[in-house]
Structures are given as structure tokens and as C-alpha cells.
Amino acid sequence: MAPGAGLSLARLLGRFPEGWSVWTYDGRRYGVTRTVRAGGRAVAVYAEELGGTDVVSANAYLTSAGEELRPCEMPAAKVLAFLERATPVS
């Protein structure tokens, strides 16, 4: 499934800083960890609802051949919705 609103997967992932940060999504707070490997070609995102049970997790591969999202045991739509609509907590 491709990202909506004309945003590339790389751009959506780039919204999140490397390391751990706090974001809100759907009225809930999440601790989000973004890990970058292989010179930026492999990106892992893991978001855990703070004080709740929801999790969003995926690996993404960003190569010259294209972008590939591999969600971890959840629909791609759930991951993309989170990546598109989460907002940082300042």
C-alpha cells in the first residue's frame, strides 16, 4: 500500500527523529523509536502507546529500486495512517 497525499514513504519516515520521541495519534500519546541502518536504506519504526496497549511497528526499505514497507503483524494501512497523522509533542 502506498502512502496517501502524495507523500513518499521516505518523507513520512523522515518526520520522526532518530531515537526515541513522544508523539500523539488519535488522541493518545505514543513513545516512538526510529532506527536507521545501512546508510538510511533500512528504517525501523516502533511506536508504543504510553499507558495503553496499542503498538505500531514496521520496517521500511528505501533503495534505488523503490520503497517497500513491511509492517510487523498488522495491516499496512494502520502503519501508514500513523506515519501520516501522528504529531510531535513539544
Give a topology summary.
Elements (H helix, E strand, L loop, with lengths): L8 H6 L4 E7 L2 E10 L4 E8 L5 E9 L2 E6 L4 H10 L1 E2 L2
Antiparallel strand pairs: 1-2, 1-6, 2-3, 3-4, 4-5
Summarize the structure.
It contains 2 helices and 6 strands.
Describe what you observe in this structure.
- The protein is an alpha+beta fold.
- The protein has one domain.
- Helices cover 18% and strands 47% of the residues.
- It is built from two helices and six strands; from the N terminus they run αβββββαβ.
- A hairpin with a 4-residue loop joins β2 and β3.
- The chain starts with 8 loop residues before the first helix and ends with a strand.
Q: What is the H/E string?
A: HEEEEEHE
Bin the helical content: 10-25%
Binned strand content: over 45%
In the predicted model, the low-confidence regions spanning at least 5 consecutive residues are none
Derived structural class: alpha+beta
Salient structural properties:
90 residues, alpha+beta, 2 helices, globular
